[in-house]
Design brief:
It comes from Denitrobaculum tricleocarpae. By secondary structure, this protein is α/β, with parallel strands linked by helices. Helices cover 46% and strands 11% of the residues.
Length: 170
């Protein structure tokens, strides 16, 4: 999904399937922008999504006033990276894959938003038997959504510094 405005750079959030972490960052950044902010926001996944957006993600974002009903998962292309001032990897594995396959070295979401290097792991990486353990999956997933959403003021504060440093060819 893309929100295009004038004269500001593009931010691109990247995760595995563009149905959880990168999508949350995309919509959360939009929710934190002021009318005077001019920025292009995009999100993409490294591969096709394994399934649609799960209910707890949709519901938790809706509780923050964020409607994701128009979201269509997008797969990352080399052109997307080339046209982006600030591509951001949501997790360590995303950064490693992008550096290996696309020869780009990206900052992590946690670096831009919080000034720390932290793995922002997917539900299946943290919750044993995540498909059957729905309560634990939702609890962890909602904590990731909160982490991303609450990090957006810091992201906006540090974004220009990361753009000035340049994120590009490794």
């Amino acid at each position: 999904m893309e929100c295009r405005m004038r004269d500001r750079p593009t931010v691109l959030f990247i995760c595995s399937g563009n149905i959880f972490r990168s999508m949350t960052a995309d919509f959360s950044l939009r929710a934190h922008l002021r009318a005077s902010d001019e920025i292009t926001i995009r999100s993409a996944g490294l591969g096709p999504p394994p399934h649609g957006v799960v209910d707890f993600v949709r519901d938790h974002l809706a509780g923050k006033g964020i409607d994701i009903s128009e979201h269509k998962p997008t797969q990352l292309t080399p052109a997307m990276l080339e046209d982006t001032a600030l591509p951001v990897a949501m997790g360590l594995e995303h950064r490693e894959i992008i550096e290996r396959d696309f020869e780009h070295r990206l900052p992590l979401f946690s670096e831009v938003a919080y000034g720390t290097v932290e793995a922002l792991r997917d539900v299946w990486e943290v919750v044993p038997d995540w498909q059957n353990n729905l309560d634990a999956s939702a609890e962890y997933g909602c904590s990731v959504i909160d982490y991303i959403h609450n990090g957006m003021p810091g992201f906006l504060e540090r974004m220009d510094d990361f753009i000035a440093r340049g994120s590009g060819k490794a």
